[in-house]
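Inputs:
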Amino acid sequence: MSARFERVAIIGVGLIGGSFALALKAAGACGSVIGVGRNPDNLARARALGVIDAEASDAGEAAEGADLILLAAPVAQTPQILRALAPRLAPRALVTDAGSTKRDAVAAARGALGARVAQFVPGHPIAGAEASGVAAARVDLFRGERVVLTPLEENGAEAVARIEALWTLCGARVSSMTPEAHDAVFAAVSHLPHLLAYALVHAFAERDDHGQLFDNAGAGFRDFTRIASSHPEMWRDICLANRDLLVAECLRYREALDALRAMVERGDGAGLERLFAAARDARNAWLQGAAREAGGSR
Amino acid sequence: MSARFERVAIIGVGLIGGSFALALKAAGACGSVIGVGRNPDNLARARALGVIDAEASDAGEAAEGADLILLAAPVAQTPQILRALAPRLAPRALVTDAGSTKRDAVAAARGALGARVAQFVPGHPIAGAEASGVAAARVDLFRGERVVLTPLEENGAEAVARIEALWTLCGARVSSMTPEAHDAVFAAVSHLPHLLAYALVHAFAERDDHGQLFDNAGAGFRDFTRIASSHPEMWRDICLANRDLLVAECLRYREALDALRAMVERGDGAGLERLFAAARDARNAWLQGAAREAGGSR
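Outputs:
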């Protein structure tokens, strides 16, 4: 099994696609990288930065002769990208993606690729930043971070192993789950917090006293809302692709917040302190565990 | 007017009280520093670190001969601390505090100090970290950060100017507002986000699938929930002291989140993208403004 690919096509050369290309190049895991994107300035910059070696006009052209294709565009584009590349997909080529939702990617792949869906190994790197575009790409973006693959029944063991090996070369720790389990977990730990942060910043921005609010916001607010500087189109697509599970998480959170507000309202100091301490302890235990795990992988 | 004080008493030698002492010492703005606290180990460490020069057994003893007293304990203790120091408060001494709520501090000062409330200049440094205790104290904690004073009608101009000068020596930018305006603004920009973060982490910790959730949480979750590692007792006190305004902010936020969830539910992609972009733009404009302001102050 080889972790090397001769011609890699990156569809969507932004933070994730660009960082993946840089990491593969640094690891000597690829020959040339062909980029496709909607924004000519961004592609020109990708080329100037050495992230890609050439541009193709669309996913179909990029797929021609490629032995690896990474989809790293906002997830609503996945069906049309897969339809565009399907006619030119080489029989031994592998396709993977970096989308934050996986049920939709799998459905799109089944629709566009039919029996060749075995060539599509869905993935989700748990890395990113509020910055976007190829200028934000970094060779070490995935180092110590996790990547979740959601392999299909149809995927051969070698196909999955090759995609896993690539992410391992990028420095990531790879795990697997089903697309359904993935979308449920990330609705909670990622999509919901983004919605909560966006809601807070937007609500403040709409208020008459927004100037005074922002003038007095400090470091706590800054970190809490960092993810509200994320890419609007990307997050629109994620919210829609994971709509059912995200709505369910919103309702669950609403209940938790109602209960906490009721504690404040009735002046339940002992209850508040217990809840805050339990939350702090859970978070600190998580941080320590995450640090140990990341340390162990290096 | 002198910004120098000969004997400074710090009631509550934690992150804030300790950093204030370190900054005053570094600026040559004080003679000796006397510390008071409930935790003997923490006080011993404060002394070993050179944060304080001596310990007093209680606020009354510390007030004896002090010309400046800073209250930096959880805010529910403010009334009893002020009552303890009142009988020994020198006529020309100044008292200030670092509490995150100001209406309660003012009410406590009026109750405990009576006519001498003119000696109490309420303040709130908008700095901090999720860490607590004197070990987390830093000489530059307040550098470039904001401090809000909420002066009383009774405060003389010189008293306010001396407290302002101290915070300026610590590197902070000082502004003023009424206690009522302060509590309303910070209910929104600080107390609400803390509640939101605590609610999320606690709700996850209580779930049967908490292991899988925390295993897959990434950098977005980490930053969003940083403030959920804050001091439980301190935040219990803040929530109770600012109960009415915090509950009102919770209800406002609930409406905003309901509206956003409804957009997800009905698949309003254009609306979501507009809202996300408006939030991102508002946040980025705030960050740029804050950076300019902090840069200009140095």
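Remarks. The first helix of chain A runs from residue 15 to 26. Strands of chain A lie at 5-11, 30-36, 54-55, 68-71, 94-97, 120-121, 123-126, 146-149, 173-176.
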